[in-house]
Amino acid sequence: MYGYTGKILHIDVTTRKTWVQEVGPEFLKKYIGGVGLATRLVYDNTPKGCDPLGPDNALCFACSAFAGTTMPVGTKHGVASKSPLTGFIGDSLSGSHFAEMLRRAGWDGIVIKGQSPDWVVIFIDDDEVQFFDASPYMGMTTMETQRAIREKLGDENVRVSAIGPAGERLVRIASIDNDGRQVGRTGNGAVMGSKRIKAIAIRGSHPITVADPEGLMRETLKLIKASRGPGTAKYRTLGTPANVLNMNKMGVLPTRNFRETVFEHADLVSGEYMREHYVIKDVGCAGCTIGCEKWVAVKEGKYKGAIIGLDYEPLFALGPNCGIGELPPIIKLVQLCDELGIDAMSAGVIVSWAMECYERGILTKEDFDGLEPHFGNDEAAVELIRKIAYREGIGDLLAEGTKRAAAKVGKGSDHFAMQVKGLEMPGYDVRSLKTFAIGLAVCARGPCHNRALSYELDIKGVVDRFVWEPGRAPLIIQKEDFAAILDCLVLCKFIRNCFENFYEDVARIYTMATGIPMTAEELRMVGTRVVNLKKAFNIREGWTKADDWLPARLFEDPIPEGPSKGAVLNPDEVRQGIEEYYLARGWTKDGLIPKSTLIELGLEDIAEEIGVEAEPVANPSSKEA
Amino acid sequence: MAEKGYEFVVCDPDKCIGCRICEYTCSMTKTGTFDPSLSRIRVVRIEPVTMLAVTCRLCADAPCVLACPRDALSRSEENGIILVDGDKCDGCGWCIEACDFGAIVLNPATKVVEICDLCQDEEGGPRCVEYCPTEALSVTTPEVLRQQIRREVVQRLFEELVEES
């Protein structure tokens, strides 16, 4: 086999037994890799209704046929399981040398089930799987764990995916870290912790062979050059924090728990200011040609010594969204999240919810063990992050995520719990991004800009962002399917504007890597298939239409000031938009998937399990999708 | 030629983002597969921000050549690259130990060591340089290198002077 190995490694940590699943080109072509393959493995290896933090949940890793090749930004891996935060599909991606090692160890994916009696480190050394006692590493931060394990094994080439103290304590927003990059969202770190796996180390010694080396080298060189052009200029110069001023200017920068959308200190936390005063190095993931990751360091003041790779999403969440208007505390906060092993996006939105509870008197100084976490109190935020990661005091409640915390606290605090399906919102206020609002509501893994991608429509002015107009569903679907195919390949989203004809070009390069024939149309179909597969998983796990709904604040509190002043979501419009989306997908108006739609997508076995008989209402616009 | 010195591949640590595409490219060029363990250029990443690609420096008085007990290594007079005589080399690894840069790799299949040869068989010079996305890698000679360094230091000095005055 070229590109792929055709082998999935299954590990049962209860019995410490392993077995190998052989998969053929037909199967691989259907899901390609990354999120698609990992989601299929989750679907096949978890019993319906399983406890996300129980032994039956399957923690699945998958790379793709481009891992470890010169395909720019193609060396990434996806991780998926049933999310302990949402109860639905929890898929997440990371840029990584881990993916290359996974492939070179001879695997397209790993499926881990069970629960170890004691904490373990799994060491996958090509086809040999060893289990070490993890006790020397317990309590270590994510990076410390990786370093210590490499030291123990005496080989710098070993790549390690590790959880921090938060994952050990089953914090529902726990992340998995490798080389300072995170499988961040939806709590896969908690799933790993529930299996009592502190780390997965991997070493591969096999060469990667491709079907057409000359063709691949030629095409990837072209792409490497293209990826240094205008399509990536923003990511190369300022990195994603370039968004701060752009979002602020449009009045969509979530500020003080999405209460406002313009931040008075935006200049001081902008990508521009960061570049000038804090950036010490541009860093790339494995096989990355862009280097969007800006490492920033604090050289003086009370946060002196803080250092981290800073992206827009953690920055918005722990900065403006918590009312914090200086970079040093934000750098410190993100570093804490990464080292203790929690998703900085969710963490920021949880802390901002807690701050609003405090300001409204719903939670008091006593509840916070003497802290006074008003908006902008960076020292309280630092302490809260620590408490969440260690489940100390109120941290134990916050570690459950905003949805569960608000349900427990009550007193109307769910009104401003900024989550969908239990996952905290990303850094765009959708009250004035009417198209993206629908994209976020229906997203299978919970609200995710990177899965929905439809913010592009509103922000780039493809549509009027202040009004919802019928007929946009096919555009939303186009973006979502495009995002899904990138997540399978796995290609970093930041190269998306560097292709002449994306589907044609990538299908051709895929065939050069794998020898598996692929057309542009087939490739497009994979994206559609994987979006449906994720939705099918959710349906199997009890999804209903009510789960595709946005936080109450966005419907009830008009934006108070700035360029988006007065904007608010209209529930009838959103309901119509969601319904239009369902129908354009070939689903029923209640969002269930007809058997016929699943069969068309080649998901016959799933059609049997969750497909409904009802025919979708004919919708002429669906063809364009 | 001798005055100007031989060409070799250098890496600018400020530009290197640690992507390791040079390793993928080198191994593909030399082995027809992606196999960084056989790459003759390797990236050192010391988390979080230290990264640099390292390969053969074509040392003038090459310790690897001196260390070889079987006279399998020699330095080409034409272009300075370290030539490996595959018949004489039996993979003992003395040269690996002698090299200050960890630039020599032992191919476990052939049991012969391999060293950067600046892609003698390729048109257009070293392919790692061609594929390096950030232009961190370049081909240079000691003379050009010191010209560059001198220019940079003088520029910096004068910028500081201008700022101070």
How is the biggest beta sheet of chain A arranged?
Answer: 6 strands, mixed
Strand residue content of chain B: 15-25%
> Mean pLDDT across all residues of chain A, rounded?
97
CATH architecture of the largest domain in chain A: Orthogonal Bundle
Computed Rg of chain B: 18 Å
Alpha-carbon distance between the two ends of chain B: 44 Å
Query: What is the rounded Rg of chain A?
Result: 23 Å
CATH architecture field of the domain at 8-55 and 116-164 in chain B: 2-Layer Sandwich
What is the number of domains of chain A?
A: 3
Number of helices of chain B: 5
Return the CATH class of the largest domain in chain A: Mainly Alpha
Q: Helical residue percent of chain A?
A: 25-40%
Low-confidence stretches of chain B: none
In summary, what is this structure?
Chain A has 625 residues and is an alpha+beta fold.
Could you characterize the architecture of this molecule?
The complex is a heterodimer of chains A (625) and B (165). With 625 residues, chain A is of the alpha+beta class. Chain A folds into three domains: 7-203, Aldehyde Ferredoxin Oxidoreductase,  A, domain 1 (4-Layer Sandwich), CATH 3.60.9.10; 227-424, Aldehyde Ferredoxin Oxidoreductase Protein, subunit A, domain 2 (Orthogonal Bundle), CATH 1.10.569; 455-624, Aldehyde Ferredoxin Oxidoreductase Protein, subunit A, domain 3 (Orthogonal Bundle), CATH 1.10.599.10. Chain A contains 26 helices and 17 strands. Chain A has a six-stranded mixed β-sheet. In chain A, helix 12 (327-340) packs parallel to helix 14 and helix 17 (434-442) crosses helix 20. Chain A is globular, with a radius of gyration of 23 Å. The mean pLDDT of chain A is 97. With 165 residues, chain B is an alpha+beta fold. Chain B has a domain at 8-55 and 116-164: Alpha-Beta Plaits (2-Layer Sandwich), CATH 3.30.70.20. In chain B, a hairpin with a 6-residue loop joins strand 4 (73-75) and strand 5 (82-84). Chain B starts with 7 loop residues before the first strand and ends with a helix. Chain A binds chain B through residues 68-70, 72, 97, 100, 104, 143, 147, 157, 179-180, 205-210, 213, 217, 221, 224, 227-228, 280-291, 295, 307-309, and chain B through 14, 17-21, 24-25, 27-28, 31-38, 45, 47-49, 51, 130-131, 133-134.
